[in-house]
User: Fold this.
Amino acid sequence: MRLIVIGAGIVGSAAAYSAATLGANVTLVDAAHTGRATSAGAGIVSPWGSRVDDPEWYTLACSAARAYPALVEALGEAGETSLGYRRVGSLTLVESPHEQQELSRKFRSRLAEWPEMGEVAELDSDQAQELFPPLRPGILAVHVSGGARVDGRLISAALRRAAGRAGARVVAGQAELKVAGGKVTGVTVGGELIEGDAVIAATGAWTDAFVEPAGVTLGITPQRGQITHISLGLTDTSRWPAVLPGGSGHYLLAFDDSRVVVGATRENDAGLDYRVTSGGLAEVLDNALAVAPGLSAGTYLETRVGFRPMGPGFRPVLGKVPGTDGLIAATGLGASGLTMGPYSGELAARTALGLDLPLDLSPFSPAGTDMSSR
Amino acid sequence: MRLIVIGAGIVGSAAAYSAATLGANVTLVDAAHTGRATSAGAGIVSPWGSRVDDPEWYTLACSAARAYPALVEALGEAGETSLGYRRVGSLTLVESPHEQQELSRKFRSRLAEWPEMGEVAELDSDQAQELFPPLRPGILAVHVSGGARVDGRLISAALRRAAGRAGARVVAGQAELKVAGGKVTGVTVGGELIEGDAVIAATGAWTDAFVEPAGVTLGITPQRGQITHISLGLTDTSRWPAVLPGGSGHYLLAFDDSRVVVGATRENDAGLDYRVTSGGLAEVLDNALAVAPGLSAGTYLETRVGFRPMGPGFRPVLGKVPGTDGLIAATGLGASGLTMGPYSGELAARTALGLDLPLDLSPFSPAGTDMSSR
Amino acid sequence: MRLIVIGAGIVGSAAAYSAATLGANVTLVDAAHTGRATSAGAGIVSPWGSRVDDPEWYTLACSAARAYPALVEALGEAGETSLGYRRVGSLTLVESPHEQQELSRKFRSRLAEWPEMGEVAELDSDQAQELFPPLRPGILAVHVSGGARVDGRLISAALRRAAGRAGARVVAGQAELKVAGGKVTGVTVGGELIEGDAVIAATGAWTDAFVEPAGVTLGITPQRGQITHISLGLTDTSRWPAVLPGGSGHYLLAFDDSRVVVGATRENDAGLDYRVTSGGLAEVLDNALAVAPGLSAGTYLETRVGFRPMGPGFRPVLGKVPGTDGLIAATGLGASGLTMGPYSGELAARTALGLDLPLDLSPFSPAGTDMSSR
Amino acid sequence: MRLIVIGAGIVGSAAAYSAATLGANVTLVDAAHTGRATSAGAGIVSPWGSRVDDPEWYTLACSAARAYPALVEALGEAGETSLGYRRVGSLTLVESPHEQQELSRKFRSRLAEWPEMGEVAELDSDQAQELFPPLRPGILAVHVSGGARVDGRLISAALRRAAGRAGARVVAGQAELKVAGGKVTGVTVGGELIEGDAVIAATGAWTDAFVEPAGVTLGITPQRGQITHISLGLTDTSRWPAVLPGGSGHYLLAFDDSRVVVGATRENDAGLDYRVTSGGLAEVLDNALAVAPGLSAGTYLETRVGFRPMGPGFRPVLGKVPGTDGLIAATGLGASGLTMGPYSGELAARTALGLDLPLDLSPFSPAGTDMSSR
Assistant:
């Protein structure tokens, strides 16, 4: 089985790693696009309290979170320990004692099915601030001990290296899909043909351009996110929990190196526009400082821009593309790419190799609108 | 007359230029400090509507503005045309028709004495937006046609080059003041002695450290300013007026290269801390976008940090330092350094050379607290 | 006459300026490509000693140099004085007295026809070093006083602003050419149609992609250039001549702001690869330091990457594209874009407007290979 | 025992960690100097083949290398796995088969005493290139399997975090040493007194300024190093060995993230000059490309500048400072700071706490020239 994976973000890197360890002959191709979502994501792995009202999405997200520890352990055994991964817990901020009770009840009602979320605790303002000192006094929170965080760039690179040592080949360049007789035959990269029996399109916001030779469109659009990195100097932030302020969709996430990542914007109409805008930056900073004024004296480091691939109805697009044998799509993870990416990559690899799946992917099946109707 | 000028910011560069063209034997020494106020200033030359309630300050500022056009012309004749200087007018934003009338009355009452301010006009929201398109609709303004802007880095460099061609020597390094018998004898730079009959300390926020060998302190403290540069792509911003939103102390200033500079913070307790902070950046962006939401889609370029030298009582410190013959201070211009700098440098040069002054400098006379009392 | 100019590099900006001042209804469209040749060029305007053995190329280049002073003056009258332009002379380095004599004879033989080159002088090592102090001792040179330099970014922006004030409209976005019945009808930008009677493709290395809807290819390929900026601190470099070391194709060029630009690589097979490479950087620095070791202690500032558009046979491509009415190409200027750009833009504008040309452009006529034969 | 450690580079961070785990009450103070040697070092831990002809230096270096694995394990148990540490082996390049034999003999003669160096192997050109693909063909090498590498920034931060969790307090600011009656009493930071029974000066190139209040000078001078980072895109460089080209003092070191670090200059007369110079950069690139031309197409990322603290006779300065009770110096590690730093920090901590030492430090005893004799 010759499998070609396009896109070395977290999904594609995981797909290549899974397939290679499962014995496939894997080629991973990457075009080094600026604005890859993986590089600009935050990295919170704590889906249990999500407000997304979509049971299938929820099951995929929680299953992905469940799969993380085993992946981290396997990578560690392969000598890859720099993933930025740590089980730091997460703090969901609430506005009132009432909301706090409701939220913790919601968490606990899901605990039996998803025990990985760990302990659920209602924290008063002092307790919350003890865990995340820059918080504004007076904020209540619900703490979930099983939340984790990961550095998207680091884990993608580690997956690629592990894939490489398991036999995968990594090729730099822009891939063009080759289809003949309703079946993928491979890709060309820089004019050179790479033959394959299956192709996984882990191509993020660039997916529709990639699958165009198959005559379909999957309706993946870019959602721009601007995300800011702040340094707190010598402060040890390595054990700080992820902070989810609730409704805004903005969050705060600390890493080992005294860095706190805050953001992000969710810009649906910006297209592939790589700029940091003054309005986007102001939005990100204002949201962060509103809940964590203690970050105010932190050093502004940089703002990254990423394009989250959004599928139709904001759902992942994961599975065989109808009408073209051998073409599998694995994208559309939106703002949850670093949570769901490794697991989605594994599912895509298993799909390509014809193996059993631990989860029904039919809710995420690519719609594949025929382009001849356009 | 051997004159040594310390500090190649706008004041020192102007002093060296003036003195060299007046025939002195000039050495200009510069330590290339990060955070020089000149590099981080905006560059608005429009002091007539200032709220500063200090007649002597006002006279100095307006005299300095009056002197600009002749300086620009002289530099142009010396082949220096890249100064970022342009007479673009200034817009002071007001909150109500009443405030607008009061302000324009204030301007007009000063027009006879300071005709350089040009035409004074009360603009409605549409007229204001026509001049500065990113403005929020509904804002009234008073326009003064004589306002100008200048790029601090460019004009300083031009003054230095012109000084050099008039015979001044420019030396890079940290200068140490030499005093003997109550008189300056020169400075050492990198261990090497440069002898001089007079020394002008145009040393900004680093002044008290420099004059320490004279046994005095002048009470100059750094006020940190963070200032942000935004690009508007291909928009021609070259004729946009300076925008002074009134009370906040924040402003917006456009340059030829589609760049709008917004800011700045006024941080009196930050010391010489070179960092861009998340709180400072948020303050700057929030103030700018509140009056000019049209900047929101502009590209964030960079934020600069500068240390404005603040004298006692926020007054300039300009003149002979008591107790040490031959030592002249020229600093403390605060947030008005790019307005008052060239003129202050010229006055310092004339003071050093013993020439008549067009203005009584006694209100700005360095106090020179004896350090032995500390 | 509705004229659309695509590409706001130096050629397109000049075309828009010329056409607007000639009375056309001009729209200038720009896609803000990274790697535009204009931004990464050096800016030497001193073609008279060129080794290029192509009389028609030589005539175009020298005519373009001749046209510069009038353009600079016209822009100055339009209030645009920041062009980085200065007539600093140029130094061509030679290996031997014999070579020096031959070269100065060559210059002088052309002096009657091209008096703009000014004085031709044979300089010994000391004289050369006096003009350009970092030079290695022992190097002979031929000095031509009429050489000038210009900052490509600054003059392009000034041309755009002046075009705008003459009525041109500037639009940001990727333009797609519209052709119907063998005639251009306009372009679309972001889905919106801009109608036009003629379109000038000043599209540099992106030309063949742009003209594809016309069914032709012009054979323009990108030549990557890496060029390094070095700062000399407080040194006044504003009057230093351009330095042309001869055979290597590398050069050194100083600007007003104590900056010396050195380079550049000429990489024909790199494609549109935006990276600074370690090998390219080493090549640039080694070439510069070999002739000017005095730059060794200068501060490394940055390296820019640009893609010079190279036409077939390394010739400019300038004129009407055969087979498509109303389509004019103005590109292919290679390493001489900042010398020939403004003049080429003007010629393209006159061609589009049907005006007389001061120069026969037939040697540069676009070949326009029909793509159906590919 | 209240111990104050000044300097949070690798030495000070290790001293704080060791002392805190040994039960001391530790305060670590750091001034966040730009140009810290730790941030700009490469990170090769492979001292066995050193040309340094100084048995005591050699014993210290090899003992430090021996201590690394246990430290890495202890940090891993403390949850700190991101150190950039990996036992990748090292390749010493040689010029001839004869030199290769001599060198491998030298390694093997030391193997009994220092078995950590692992396997010693003579590699032909193909074998060397297989381990480090960018190498120039035709180069012979001696491979030592026990060589390791580490990221100085990462391990310092991990040591600081582990110290903090063991009870150490970390304070940001410039420390001023307080001495009374021939004994250290503590330090002030930002005007605030921190009392202590002992002070470890892990102050690198800033040591002599720090110990000045003790009336001594230790003769530590800065050696500037410029070091360049090159990216190889998607190439898995995580297992590439350190490359030591021999005589030049330059080296090449790959990290997990497809980054190769090459350098560095050894500039003894540059002082604390933070600039990247064109000459320094050319030296670094030329040395790297001479032995590894395969790096030529790699992306230039950045050049870092660090100041290696050099002690008198290029020896470490490690132990009690004579004449001032409670003052311990731990610096002067020169180009071997990342090899010897953690162990030196531990030795300094044990010295401060009055514990037994596993090594005689008298050869590195601070000389402590009395400043009154200056």
Observations:
- The radius of gyration of chain C is 20 Å.
- Chain C has a mean pLDDT of 95.
- Chains C and A do not touch (no CB pair under 8 Å).
